[in-house]
Amino acid sequence: MATAVHLDGITKRFPGVVANDDVDLAVRRGTVHALLGENGAGKTTLMNVLYGLYEPTDGQVYVGGEPRRFDSPRDAIDAGVGMIHQHFMLVDPMTVTENVTLGNEPRKWLGLTVDEERARREVVDLRDRYGFDVDPDARIEEVGVGVQQRVEILKALYRGAEVLILDEPTAVLTPQEVDDLFAVFEELTAQGKTIIFITHKLGEAMHAADEITVLRDGRNVGTVPADEVTREELAEMMVGREVLRTVEKPPADRGERVLAVDGVSVDDDRGVEAVSDVSFSVRAGEVFGIAGVDGNGQSELIEAVTGLRDPTAGRIVYRGEDVTDWSRRRRIEARMSYVPEDRHERGLVMDFDLTQNGILGSQHSDEFACDGRLDWDAARDHAETIIEEYDVRPPNRRAAAASFSGGNQQKFIVGREFERDPALVVATHPTRGVDIGSTEFIHDRLLALRSSGVAVLLVSSNLEEVRGLSDRLAVVHDGEIMDVVDPESATEEEIGLLMAGEDPSDGSGPVAAGATNEGGR
Amino acid sequence: MSNAVASRAGLSTRRLAGLALGAAVALFVLAGVAMPDSTPGKVLRVAFTKSALAATLRLSVPIAFAALGGIFAEKSGVINIGLEGLLIISAFVAVYAADVGGSVWLGLLVGVLASTLLAGLFAVVCIEFRADQIIAGLAVWLIALGLAPFASQAIYGGPNTESLEGSFGTITVPVLSEIPFFGALFDANPVVYLMFAAVGLSWYALNRTSFGRWVVASGENPKALDTAGVNVTRVRYAAVLLSGVLAGFGGAALSLSLGQFIGNGATMVNGKGFIAIVAYLFGNYNPVGALLSTFLFAGLDALQIRLQAAAIIAVPQSLVRTIPYVAVIVVLALFGRTRIPEAAGDHYESGED
User: Fold this and answer.
1) What are the pLDDT digits (tens) for B130-162?
2) Domains with residue ranges and CATH for chain B
3) In whole angstroms, what is the distance from residue B319 CA to residue B305 CA?
4) Phi then psi for B214, rounded to 5 degrees?
5) Is the CB of B2 inside 8 Å of chain A's CB atoms?
6) Domains of chain A, with CATH numbers?
7) Most exposed of A161, A502, B292, B326 (fewest Cβ within 10 Å)?
8) Chain A interface, best mutation among B221, B348, B350, by max A CB count within 10 A
9) Which of these, B196, B227, B230, lies nearest to B210 by C-alpha position?
10) Does ipTM exceed 0.90?
């Protein structure tokens, strides 16, 4: 089969960094090719070279067998290469049709006016040809992420793309939407299009791709057919050593009750009840896990525990005291640590450097503040400690948090929160979007805290993670705890059923009438 | 649930206040109609005259043009707070050019040119050199506020220029201009008709042309426009220059209609550029909406001038003079539901990550 894209010896250097080092890549026409690697392995840089956003320091790009030199994405688009970025490039208040045709609007009346009928017809034709479920008149701000992604794909197709590059396309999707996306891949390749998608998830690469190329430290480690390779082999290629997938932990040495949540109900932003009458407790020296599909009340529950949202009913007892009405500051001072789920929104101030970010939450403590002044020397030392202890690799010490990779940002937040000498750690999705190496590191630290007698409340939608780390596991669905199970003895199927709102012991019927429909997907 | 009730209550407080205001205005009008000799009756009689409408239209011209200009600039992502300065510079230059060239139409053209040049300077500073748009916009105002009266001083020996001989005159439509009250629409200065034309053209440009799409995309998500292969910088330059052209029409029309540039204090522009900003925000960046809110402010301005003269209400004149500005605050607080472009005020550089 013909080669759609051939990258020959691509090297891309940035000041002080080699992002791509002599990478070869050949992608056959009409196939799905996964570009697999950890955060910072150079996947996105390589694709930006192909898309004309970066000029390679060395090497040659061939598209359709011909040598090409792209000075801008415009050139790449003209050569039939389209890219769908991780952050969608869509204009929210505009309609699907307007977004798809933006910059290439069909015109009438001497080019003075956009021919809206023709634009709409062309978009509908394109949509029908590939079987996309998209309303051409819907505004982008009204449709979900899955649809937005399809609009991006339509945009590339409208511009005549033969090769589609997708950067981490599944990061923002629900499992159901991921399946839909992979179905779209099949439809596209069936019609002769070529797809390259970037991912750091092994399972997705194996599931959706025909061939997988693994990048590590900017180098091509190898290209393998997806159906002839095992997870273990791929994982080893990614990190360059044997990976232990199972977490080993000694039995829990439970102490006193640190946190007790008693009949708590919480409303979400719209005033709808998101958590209904939930009770549980966490003891010193154990990890209490909460598993569930995102959006089943986990965020609201955690915000109530950490003091970011007022519960509408119930009590939160922390180390023997009723803290329901305590301020966030008081809870921090009482040694409650929090690794938030959205590190950009709540974990870091993106314009601050590490010294400033390192004392967030501790800005009142005597350690860093005296006589109403901040002690920047102490803050700097503190940041250094976190950087050393938690293996944070910043581009440079004074760089703003925004310039770090996601994994390094997360390690820094985890370091800051774990170094507070906490009695309770509330960690939500602590390894979301983090590569394997960093994930293992964060898991080890979390278990070390547990061994030293800290109570840990862990929320994660990653079942493997929450099962591996927890001593007791609560499964939530639609704002209620379905059951608290022993993660060692419960099977994945049992937990899966509970997450879908069904009680495995009780046949297949739904537990609460009508609850399954909303929560199931 | 209590939160939901509270938030609904919070929303309705604002709506209640709005309704109360509407009811008060309606009551005032009713009282005026029922009792022509009462104070409301006298106010209405002053307000609903052909001359009041004519004054409203005349006062609307600079505000509406500046508002249209502001829409294009801000929709594209460049907040042009310097509209006031553009009005001032074009007001002076237009009179000077008309004086030297002997034609008000030449004056209009040169006034527009001057405003466009100043807007171009603003664009270079904001887009090329990435200056803060608000500060650069204030600088445009302050430069014009100093430059225009200074030039007048140098040329005419005082902050006010001499009066021009010629004028635009009026275009009178036979028969239609005889209609009571609305007849003023058909017996007006040509610049009034220009204003209506500009509103229509601006609406068309924004909503029906590719350029309009690009302007919107440039202000909402410039990166989306860039990756679609359209040069964001060029779109923004075009939009800001267009705001200069439009504001130039407004400023030139203002001074040429009067036949003189008045440079004392805040000059004859006297905050119209800032009212224009409120007008387009209140009109939610829609040219037609901006025109209607311009009419509201200009109408109140025309009314307060007449109330001062008629002395119907026993209120100090300096308080009567604040009516349009009080209206601005009330309107923004009660009815403001503006959606500001996502990327307004942000710099954009292609190829940035």
Assistant:
1) 899 999 999 999 999 999 999 999 999 988 988
2) 58-335 (1.10.3470.10)
3) 12
4) -65, -40
5) yes
6) 3-239 (3.40.50.300), 253-334+456-521 (3.40.50.300), 336-420 (3.40.50.300)
7) B326
8) B221
9) B230
10) no
